[in-house]
Amino acid sequence: MDIFQSPLMSLPGITPEEFSYLQQATTGLTEQQLRNFLMVYSTKRKNPSDMLIFCLIGLLVIPGLQRFIIGQIGMGILYLLTLGLCFIGSIIDVVNHKTLAFEHNQKMVFESLQMVRMGGFQ
User: Fold this and answer.
1) What is the distance between the terminal CA atoms of the chain, rounded to a whole angstrom?
2) Model confidence pLDDT, tens digit, residues 57-108
3) Residue 26, SS3?
4) Under 8 Å CB-to-CB from 73, ≥6 apart: which residues?
5) SS3 of 29-96
6) What digits encode the pLDDT tens for the residues 3-54?
């Protein structure tokens, strides 16, 4: 299949690393399962550009917002109480926003695949 005709390319802001990971993860799915997977996964994934915005808001306005958004509630509270670990943690998150998004998306791929393979979507 041509890379540009893949339904995975319909995801906004998809990186080559994420595309490669998704190709490996979705190998063996039927066309219907792939459509269901994309429907579930697209609602759970975080776009790296959006993550950068959340990190900047976390740095300047609400410390730890980016951690709350990706479901790391404990780290979010820690960032909130320590002003983003004295701004150092928030600055590191701004620099590593793509990694934060990719790690979150990897977890969402696993959850979405489980939902599709368990047959919750027919």
Assistant:
1) 24
2) 999 999 999 999 999 999 999 999 999 999 999 999 999 999 999 999 999 9
3) coil
4) 67
5) CCHHHHHHHHHHHHHHCCCHHHHHHHHHHHHHCCCCHHHHHCCCHHHHHHHHHCHHHHCHHHHHHHHC
6) 667 888 888 888 889 999 999 999 988 888 899 999 999 999 999 999 999 9
Gap between the Cα atoms of 23 and 40, Å rounded: 16
Residue 13 confidence (pLDDT): 85
Amino acid present at 18: E
Take residue 76 and report the two structure tokens written for it: 């979010």
Q: Which amino acid is at 26?
A: T
Rounded Cα distance, 52 and 71, in Å:
16
Question: If phi over 0 gives left and psi between -120 and 50 gives alpha, with beta otherwise, what is residue 45?
Answer: beta
User: Dihedral sign, CA of 21, 25, 27, 31?
Assistant: negative
> What pLDDT sits at residue 81?
97
- The radius of gyration of the chain from alpha carbons, rounded to an integer in Å, stands at 16
